[in-house]
């Protein structure tokens, strides 16, 4: 074959329609890259990621099934989520993407602690590229005191003592010299000064500082609120536990940047700027903090008069953390996000937040598999924020948010990868605001939420940069105009919005009558400056509520619903609300 014949053959292969079709088919076909990545487990969730090349036309799916050890019936999970890096996030977005393909990520919910599961992932693509992977995964267990801990007794004082029950150490400094893995410091009633700890515990031998149940052990830094001040300083430490202590009198209560495996349980935080601070730790460096049953009361007032205030319970980065059953009152943020290291595979659930002059819960700067569910948030500027989410998914589901003066969900700073599912949100004006100026909001899924307002617009989207929105089957009520979409398109009614094809491609939204929605007669807040109490906020649905049986089935997220279909909002009709805030002792 001469040179002219070769050139002709190349031209036919490259330029012919059939060659184009072959190349396009190759790009559309999905191809798994390696084996799935297993996230840090938590008590009730397992997360995973899987890189997929190709699938340019975005029609591949990865189905999820899971099987509990000892059982025979596989259960269906929610499909893995296609992570679409935000087009305006630059290098961060590139780092989290997949060259020539996609990252899929997702979680399984409602699992039993300390239990092994088989997880089956099935990649399916009409254009070719089917694959299956089965993973062995095990949930984490709530940290409990190991057997054989060496008990060391401590009382307030200036030195001396042996640490025995009859002859306790006199003062915390005298006791710290004996800090070894497997040591349990029992702090008796009284006041102790601020201290630093330079010892580490071990996995099955933590170092525990515990106040007595029948007396208040107070660690007091004396009231220096310089932003570098700490009550307990524990930078870079591992496997330290702090339980049943009152911690007060500095900017940081427990300052533990880049720390790992901390337990903060049943502590009271007073007169501090931030409760537990653990930033700058990466995904494998800062792991498995357990923050549960704590109580923080700050100095903020309602209505908000000072703008953004820094008081919060937690300020953390890393992976596999659990923040649950805490009470956070009169703070700026309940849970604060951080750009000093990001977070993945963390759970925030069953917390009780009241009077947050900024945000109830922040997931800001998170990457993969953040999960926020079952929280009660009231009297706040913003309910839950994602600003930004860098990849996703950020699961936000079954939260109850009342009197968020700006929006129940704040989506700012070029965010991507958010699922809003089965939330109940009542506010005074505009049920759901998305108004991030010119910033983009991308890759958002919404299903089965309940948004009620006392006036204004139901869905108000004041940015022209909403992309890849998949929203359907939410309920709205109390509005005067249903929607403003992408800053310029107004729709007076739900029917107008559905017919336009701009917002909905499926069922559309449902009109909900606020007057008959809840069995208690709960209405959207009429006065944003009022402090609404728990007793006023019974959000159980009425049997004849318009929200009943209006939802769509979402495997693993609304299994066990009553009636013909799932109900809209955070609570299925006939179910009792979960327990918010600290659990009773012994649970």
How would you portray this structure in words?
It is a single chain. The protein has 587 residues and is mainly beta. The strands form 6 sheets. The protein has a 17-stranded parallel β-sheet that branches. The chain has a 14-stranded parallel β-sheet with strand order 10-9-11-14-17-19-21-25-29-31-33-35-38-41. It is globular and about 80 Å long. A hairpin with a 6-residue loop joins strand 3 (61-68) and strand 4. Helix content is 7%, strand content 41%. Mean pLDDT is 93; it is low at 1-23. It starts with a helix and ends in a 76-residue tail after the last strand.
Can you lay out the helices and strands and say which pair or pack?
Blueprint: H1 3-15, H2 17-28, E1 30-38, E2 46-54, E3 61-68, E4 75-76, E5 81-83, H3 91-96, E6 101-108, E7 116-124, E8 131-138, E9 150-155, E10 169-170, H4 172-176, E11 183-187, E12 190-193, E13 195-196, E14 207-211, E15 217-224, E16 230-233, E17 240-243, E18 245-255, E19 263-265, E20 268-278, E21 290-292, E22 295-297, E23 312-316, E24 318-319, E25 322-324, E26 327-331, E27 335-336, E28 343-344, E29 347-349, E30 352-362, E31 370-373, E32 376-386, E33 394-397, E34 400-411, E35 415-421, E36 424-427, E37 432-434, E38 441-447, E39 450-453, E40 457-461, E41 466-472, E42 475-477, E43 481-485, E44 489-491, H5 494-500, E45 510-511
């Amino acid at each position: 074959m001469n040179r002219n014949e070769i050139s002709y053959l190349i031209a036919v292969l490259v330029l012919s329609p059939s060659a184009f079709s072959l190349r396009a088919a190759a790009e559309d076909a999905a191809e798994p890259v390696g084996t799935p990545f297993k996230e840090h487990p938590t008590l009730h969730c397992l997360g995973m990621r899987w890189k997929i090349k190709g699938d340019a036309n975005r029609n591949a799916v990865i189905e999820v099934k899971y099987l509990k050890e000892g059982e025979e019936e596989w259960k269906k999970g929610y499909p893995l989520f296609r992570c679409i890096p935000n087009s305006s996030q630059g290098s961060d977005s590139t780092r989290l993407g997949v060259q020539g393909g996609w990252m899929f990520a997702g979680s399984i919910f409602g699992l039993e602690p300390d239990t092994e599961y088989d997880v089956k992932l099935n990649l399916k693509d009409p254009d070719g590229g089917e694959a299956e992977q089965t993973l062995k995964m095990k949930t984490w267990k709530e940290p409990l005191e190991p057997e054989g801990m060496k008990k060391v007794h401590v009382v307030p004082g200036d030195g001396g003592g042996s640490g025995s029950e009859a002859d306790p150490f006199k003062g915390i400094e005298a006791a710290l010299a004996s800090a070894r893995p497997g040591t349990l410091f029992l702090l008796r009633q009284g006041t102790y000064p601020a201290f630093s700890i330079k010892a580490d515990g071990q996995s099955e031998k933590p170092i525990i500082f515990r106040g007595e149940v029948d007396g208040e052990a107070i660690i007091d830094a004396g009231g220096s609120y310089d932003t570098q001040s700490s009550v307990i300083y524990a930078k870079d430490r591992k496997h330290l536990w702090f339980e049943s202590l009152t911690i007060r009198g500095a900017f940081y209560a427990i300052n533990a940047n880049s720390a790992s495996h901390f337990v903060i349980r049943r502590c009271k935080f007073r007169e501090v700027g931030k409760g537990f601070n653990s930033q700058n730790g990466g995904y494998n460096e800062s792991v498995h903090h357990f923050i549960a049953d704590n109580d923080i009361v700050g100095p903020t007032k309602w209505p908000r008069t000072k703008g953004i205030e820094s008081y919060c319970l937690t300020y953390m980065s890393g992976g596999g953390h659990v923040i649950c059953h805490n009470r956070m009152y009169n703070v700026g943020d309940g849970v604060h996000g951080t750009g000093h290291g990001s977070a993945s595979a963390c759970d925030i659930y069953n917390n009780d937040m009241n009077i947050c002059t900024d945000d109830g819960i922040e997931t800001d700067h998170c990457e993969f598999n953040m999960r926020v569910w079952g929280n009660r948030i009231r009297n706040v500027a913003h309910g839950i924020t994602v600003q930004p989410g860098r990849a996703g998914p950020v699961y936000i589901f079954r939260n109850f948010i009342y009197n968020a003066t700006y929006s129940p969900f704040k989506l700012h700073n070029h965010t991507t990868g958010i699922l809003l599912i089965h939330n109940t949100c009542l506010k005074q004006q505009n049920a759901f605001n998305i108004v991030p100026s010119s910033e983009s909001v991308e890759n958002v899924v919404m299903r089965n939420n309940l948004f009620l307002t006392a006036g204004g617009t139901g869905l108000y989207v004041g940015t022209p940069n909403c992309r890849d929105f998949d929203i359907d089957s939410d309920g709205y009520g109390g509005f005067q105009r249903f929607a403003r979409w992408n800053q310029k398109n107004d729709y007076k009614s739900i029917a107008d919005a559905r017919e336009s094809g701009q917002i909905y491609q499926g069922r559309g939204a449902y009109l909900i009558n606020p007057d008959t929605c809840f069995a208690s007669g709960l209405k959207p807040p009429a006065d944003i400056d009022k402090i609404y109490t728990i007793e006023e906020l019974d959000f159980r649905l009425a049997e004849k509520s318009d929200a009943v049986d209006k939802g769509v089935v979402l495997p693993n997220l609304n299994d066990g619903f009553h009636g013909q279909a799932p109900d809209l909002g955070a609570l299925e009709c006939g179910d009792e609300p979960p327990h918010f805030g600290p659990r009773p002792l012994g649970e």
